[in-house]
Amino acid sequence: GSIGDGTVEAIGVNTNKKLLPKTCFKLSVDLAFSREFIHEQLIYHAVKLNIFASKAECDKTTLIWTSPVIFHTDWLTYTFSFTVDDVYSGLILEARFQADSFHPGNILIDNIKLEAQELNLGNTMTFCEQQKVTLDTRFPSSAVSWSNGFTEPSIEADAPGTYWVEVQESGCLLRDTVELKVLEPLLPLDFGEEQVN
User: Fold this and answer.
1) CA angle in degrees (0–180, nearest 5) for 10-85-91
2) CA dist., res. 105 & res. 26, Å (int)
3) pTM here?
4) Whether the Cβ atoms of residue 96 and residue 49 lie closer than 8 Å to each other
5) What's the CA gap between 162 and 147, in Å, rounded?
6) What is d(CA 182, CA 177) in angstroms, rounded to the nearest whole number?
7) What is the pLDDT of residues 51-78, one digit of tens each?
8) CB-based contacts of 78: which residues, under 8 Å, 6+ apart?
9) How far is CA 99 from the centre of its chain?
């Protein structure tokens, strides 16, 4: 578009794996502003960065983060955590104006890093009578709350039923549920009376 017409520029990035619910994503990105960038005698001003979760190319489905206006010329790393409530295939990074006034701008982006940690207890687990099963969130340093009142990252359960857990990790709030079932005891084998040949 033309300068002042309110258009923005964005670029799409496919992620190596799909963005899924019940996962805490941690994204870090290095940002800076260039005071030397001039095009057609226009001075480019500082802008901010919007990051969207995307389901298709050029589809800004869900806004997950907005940076402050990037005035600094030194590289700074910005890190944030987020969750999604649907399945997404990528991210869209959009350079956006400081406010509603339109102006030419620039933002430098480097070192995008996305990490994921999933909460998955499974749907159903079975165990034998008189035994216990370990339920593990795999979030060792998080705030954890189980349906039975425990607050440890992993617990041992010895009774059938539905167990849920809630995990707070770096700004993410994750929940999962698992059903525990006791295996029916096997019938004893009966080979009849012992016979000697």
Assistant:
1) 20
2) 27
3) 0.75
4) yes
5) 9
6) 17
7) 999 998 888 989 999 999 999 999 999 9
8) 28, 29, 30, 31, 67
9) 28
